[in-house]
Amino acid sequence: MRTDLRHRSTSPLTRVRNLGILAHVDAGKTTVTERILYLTGATHKRGEVHDGTTVTDFDSQERDRGITIFAAAVSCVWGGHRINVIDTPGHVDFSDEVERSLRVLDGAIAVFDAVAGVEPQSEAVWRQADRHAVPRIAFVNKLDRAGADLDSAVRSIGERLHTVPLVVQLPIGQEDEFTGVVDLLRMRSLIWTAGRDTYEEGPVPVALREEALRRRRVLEEAVAELHPAALEEFCERSAVSEQTLAGALRDLTRTGEGVVVLCGSAYRNCGIEPLLEAVVAYLPSPLDVPPVRGTQDGAVQERAADPAAPFAGLVFKVNSTATGRLTYLRVYAGTIQKGDAVLDAGAHRSERIGRILRVQADRHAEMDRAVAGDIVAVVGLKAARSGATLCAPAAPLLLEPPTAAAPVVTVAVEARSRLDADRLATALARLVEEDPSLAVRTDPETGQTVLSGMGELHLEVAVEKIRRAHGLEVGVGRPRVAYRETVARGVSGLAYRHVKQDGGAGQFAHVVLDVEPLKPAAADGSGSAEGFEFLSTVTGGRVPQEYIRAVEAGCRDALAEGPLGGHPVTGVRVTLTDGATHSKDSSEMAFRTAGRLGLREALRAGVMALLEPVVEVTVTVPDDAVGAVLGDLAARRGRVAGQAARSGTAVITATVPLAELFGYASRLRSRTQGRGTFTTRATGYVPAPASVSGGTLSS
């Protein structure tokens, strides 16, 4: 239902912006966030990443490593607008933090390095934002660096992200001489003088006027191609007015048809005020996004962003602190106050709101209530997990939770002392509660406690958190990757008869299965339902429909462990071609058992292949170290996909098995005298060579 426009124009929600800062590691996300907080008066001193004084990187590990690890929420006010910001990690190992943050955001600022342009993780988080339909504006940062090139960065945005970049600024000066920008909408210059906290506005410099007019014309033409109102005005007047252009840019941003591109240098405090103005002008308020959708008794329902509507909110982060359990919540509809009872719709459990906090990273300000559009932390919830829906008990609604990625790297962990075993179990349970991309299980063969995560760094951070937060000495085994198994050659017509008679009602089920590999495009290597397809060609009612569903469920059960090494099975199609029932002894349980045991027998009878996870590695090294790095990548079974020169360095892109990357950081440092860096991005699974298969089986 559309919100009444007269009510909308006066609603406080029109002055709220919920946005995230997205980028590749080291592109400057945290510095941009720090400058936003400083210029809006939320902080009184500019924090620096290299000094460990930033607000959002408050965890000791973040300050030690110099990177963002945990998504941090902050809030500020600009021009009468409440801006809630989530600074997200840029490292691939912590992409699940980005996923959970994007689920509750209305917009985002994508930050790009003016030298590197679109980097691998920039592309990955952009795709995540695409999946959630989150409108974005782009900020090309670090224009003061040697080799900075706005046009090159913009070209990479268009080519790699498949969007239309709409550049609204022209830099004044290059590299060390960068001092400001030309605003192409208002045709004015904005100059930041060293030592000043704000800019000086003036006319476009004479030397840049011709170039500014040319770029304004390019912007008008690009917008006119995408926006009907701008096209109509352009055809009538051969130009587009500032007002029409601004409205068109807002519409194109919110539909995702184009992305507004601004530029600056956050470290030098240049370009942040126009960025904030663009956030207010172009990114949506909670009223500008579609009503949140959920289910109630199986029926899909919508709930508008209205403080007077029944309460509905989504938990996107849980954090245990020294003072208690903090539950981070996006309020989509309704109002909550201290002491209110709420329903955890997924767990059908009642909870009570103890306190409501406005979040400023690791600092909090108490609030009396939170309304639709707010992002807050609440105290008092005992069991709500990340992804839980909280709603009014009288109007239940279940929202879709964020999806957690499947872990790909595993280590065995154990307490140094037997007396600490229980404390370790408690610490691991708390870790998994805070970070759903971590998983803990007990290996049935060895009895070891196994911790799984998204990468080597992810697990290092998790183990170090146990040591620091809980004071535990923890032993860690060598990392292992999560292999998968798939069908290389299947079997046809495998008959399996399940008969059990031990007094009373018996069990009888007879199934005939064809098992074959899925086409590579359908086998995603995740071991999930997308890598499995079940068909039935049974005719004449020989197997009733309810029993066919039971056979499918049994086959899915069998995919948990393959015959090669007990790894999950993916990339398989199973067809039920025939079967038989018994008038008294057949049941859904019997056919589920027949499906499970029958598929296991079929997998053992066919030819299986092992799949290993691979990642795209982007290595940046000095020119004189290229040969050594290429040789090392080849030794790690890497396949080089590309190589480019950039300001005295080489950027090498290669696909490498994840198992071969353990310890690569130290090896790269030694081969490049500490000057080389690398990033990774998961790309899926590929067949493992016989040497790996043999090693896995023998282990």
In CATH terms, what is the fold-level topology of the largest domain?
Rossmann fold
Q: Which percent band covers the strand fraction?
A: 25-35%
Indicate the CATH class of the largest domain: Alpha Beta
Strand segment count: 38
Number of contiguous helices: 17
Radius of gyration over all CA atoms, rounded = 28 Å
Kindly state the mean pLDDT as a whole number? Answer: 86
Describe the model.
28% of the residues lie in helices and 33% in strands. The protein is of the alpha+beta class and 699 residues long. It folds into five domains: 12-176 and 259-282, P-loop containing nucleotide triphosphate hydrolases (Rossmann fold); 292-399, Translation factors (Elongation Factor Tu (Ef-tu), domain 3); 409-477, 2-Layer Sandwich (Alpha-Beta Plaits); 484-605, Ribosomal Protein S5, domain 2; 612-697, Alpha-Beta Plaits (2-Layer Sandwich). The protein has an eight-stranded antiparallel β-sheet with strand order 18-17-23-14-15-22-19-20. Strand 33 (532-536), helix 13 and strand 34 (572-580) form a beta-alpha-beta unit. Helix 7 crosses helix 8 and helix 13 (545-558) crosses helix 14. It is globular, with a radius of gyration of 28 Å. Residues 1-10, 521-529 and 694-699 have low confidence and may be disordered.
List the helices and strands and how they pair.
Layout lengths: L4 H6 L5 E8 L5 H11 L20 H6 L6 E7 L2 E7 L7 H8 L4 E7 L6 H12 L4 E6 L8 H12 L3 E3 L1 E4 L7 E4 L4 E5 L6 E4 L3 H21 L1 H10 L4 H14 L3 E5 L8 H11 L9 E5 L2 E5 L8 E10 L2 E10 L1 E3 L3 E4 L4 E4 L2 E6 L2 E5 L1 E3 L3 E5 L9 E3 L6 E2 L9 E7 L5 H14 L4 E4 L6 E5 L2 H15 L3 E3 L3 E2 L2 E6 L1 E10 L6 E11 L14 E5 L8 H14 L13 E9 L7 H18 L1 E16 L3 H10 L3 E8 L2 E9 L6 H8 L5 E11 L2 H9 L1
Parallel strand pairs: 1-3, 1-4, 4-5, 5-11, 6-11, 33-34
Antiparallel strand pairs: 2-3, 7-8, 8-9, 9-10, 12-13, 12-24, 14-15, 14-23, 15-22, 16-21, 17-18, 17-23, 19-20, 19-22, 25-27, 25-28, 25-29, 26-27, 30-35, 31-32, 32-34, 35-37, 35-38, 36-37
